[in-house]
Amino acid sequence: MEADTVLAVTGLTKAFGGFTAVNGVDLAVRRGSIHALIGPNGAGKTTCFNLLTKFLTPTKGSIVYNGRDITRDRPAEIARQGLVRSFQISAVFPQLSVKTNVRIALQRKRGDSFDFWRSEDVLKPLDEEALRLVEAVGLSAFAELPAAELSYGRKRALEIATTLALDPEMLLLDEPMAGMGREDVERIEALIRKVSHNRTILMVEHNLSVVASLSDRITVLARGQVLAEGDYATVSKDPRVIEAYIGSGVGHAH
Q1: Most buried residue, 102, 106, 178, 241, by most Cβ within 10 Å?
Q2: How many independent structural domains does the chain possess?
Q3: By three-state DSSP, how is residue 229 classified?
Q4: What is the CATH number of the domain that holds 211?
Q5: Are residues 47 and 110 in the same domain?
């Protein structure tokens, strides 16, 4: 494995009964890059992500993270190694304030999950760190607001803050822009660009204009296999990619 490859996937395959959802996928994610996984509906992107984050066990193939084979590791084990997935569930307590949500994530990182009763001198430094993260994702004005009262896009920003509280080295973003209006998309896109500093990001994303502006490298999946790989300019001109998108009725975004 090359020194600058943080995640190396070889021959990744997942069969459900007679159906092969992911078929022999090879993927190398460069350290410090933003790498996008795209493809028409049914291409196997979500299954691939579930394999990488250990929510599914591969039928065949290997996953190596930072030189260590994690193919058989459990989700909690890989999270501790710094490979963290966001947006798989809304990991937010709706009735608690924005700041408290981030503080709970910081407490999880320290391993003392729910010590709500801890003395103030323990919680005060965590509050300061929580407010720094809240500010980093542009939510300072909403710090004391219950998470339930945030707009959809701001809830997503809070999820990024709670994920960053775990201090991941590599962030897996599962359709970060799903269901967002243009204003929220622009805000979250800027946030992803900001948090990618000193981190590696792998994301599944349907919004191709976001993929075009954020990604250093793109892997296109179709029918469970890698169809093309490269930067946006390269893959968007690839006739096989155009065919895969148009053939699936998605249309081709420029």
Answers
A1: 102
A2: 2
A3: strand
A4: 3.40.50.300
A5: no
The answer to whether residues 75 and 97 belong to one domain is no
Which residue is associated with the tokens 């096989």? 240
Per-residue burial over 161-170, b = 16 or more CB atoms within 10 Å of its CB, e = otherwise: bbbbbbebeb
Those residues with Cβ within 8 angstroms of residue 128's Cβ, 6 or more apart along the chain or in another chain: none
Q: What does the alpha-carbon distance between residue 73 and residue 82 come to, in Å, rounded to a whole number?
A: 13
pLDDT digits (tens, 9 = 90+) for 198-213: 899 999 998 889 999 9
∠43-84-68 over CA atoms, to 5°? 90
The CA-based angle 13-16-18, given to 5 degrees, is: 100
Q: What is the pLDDT of residues 123-150, one digit of tens each?
A: 778 899 999 999 999 999 999 999 999 9
Collapse the DSSP code of 11 into the 3-class scheme (helix H, G, I; strand E, B; otherwise coil) and give the result: strand
Q: 207 and 153: one domain?
A: no
